[in-house]
Amino acid sequence: MPFTFAAPDARALPLHVLEPDDLEAWTAQQSDFVRAWIGASSFKAALGTALMIPGPDGTPDRALAGYGSAKQRARTRFALAGAVAQLAPGTYRITEGLPTEDAATEALGWLLSGYGFARYSGALPTVPALVAPDGVDATRIEILANSEALTRDLINTPASDMGPVALEQAARDLAADFGAQIAVATGDELLEANFPMIHAVGRASVEAPRLIDMRWGTTGPTLTLVGKGVCFDTGGLNIKPGSSMGLMKKDMGGAANVLGLARMIMALGLNLQLRVLIPAVENSISASSFRPQDILTSRKGLTVEINNTDAEGRLVLADALAFADEEQPDLMISMATLTGAARVAVGPDLAPFFVDEDAVATALEKSGRRTADPLWRLPFWEPYEAVIEPGIADLDNAPSGGFGGSITAALFLRRFVTDTPRYVHFDIYGWQPSPAPGRTKGGFLQGPRAILDALPSLLNL
Fold it and tell me: Which superkingdom is the protein from (predicted)?
């Protein structure tokens, strides 16, 4: 179901957005009936509350939505979305009280409140319609909402229906929607095309490993997105315990996020040349599994000692990054559900990222705050480079010790990007652990809205 605003000329109920400190003054200006109605209710304009006010015939005439205090809103990404479920069915127009600087974010949160993963249950939340607030770019917000829905759907789909074949089809469908070109190397074609580590990680699966290569746009600066597409991760021969395997359908969250970002870019028609690379594999167990202590030779020629087959994401990304680096795009971004260490460092709500250039980091962090897509910079800490050098090979895919695991993984990836002027790596979680306003439990977009907002400054668009 597409996410859209109601037509501007739709008959809509007025919705007044109120903070607790403003409620008394607002109420004093209303009719005796409205003052009595509010006084008889428990409405205090608290965050996530709403009150319907009837007209003379008893049907809804207007509504109030609590916006809470600034301190409360700082703890909630989509503050107004919490009140949406409290409103009666219908169409609403925000008439007052919503700060101009919050309007775009709150309108997006309202649309996302209508998201539900209905592929298997058919159940979708019922959300009142909203006329886009004055001054916002309604088309852009609709594109953001529908692109996030794509990302969420891809992550939420179990591996039984979202293996490498299905992930390739999702990319092909997206390419067809926007006139993009797509090429895919599959199975032993990966060896012929010199992607040995993608092949090694995925060769044990029933569904052959593949590298998806999508291109769109013919003018403007060049942007390459690389997304980890591990459709399910058993851990390989270093098999995960059951408690760690339960969410591994989301291990293609990097791929889902770059596809969501690609959809935003193409739907908005940005003047750039976009490339999307997704190594799509399943890390399975069979007689052909790659093994601990194997030494793999990467596309770039660097050798990698395998000390844990459960650190496979960086292997498939490495070949894809080396391939992307050969074209030297103006900006390269990788996104991956790569390490548990990142979750320990910043939790599930923040998307940590790594970049060498301070100006790029500043632009991304500002955009994250502006778009309710929070980011946190972690360092490419060069003193840890020695940790990923095992001696027997050029690189170690899983250095012992456990310290700084997200940093050492990022350093590993950076070894494969030597000619591209700007490289940013995101180590995302891609999952909302519990429901929140505008965010259902499950697959989650992390980083793309902030990246999209920062692109004009990063690429001089």
Answer: Bacteria
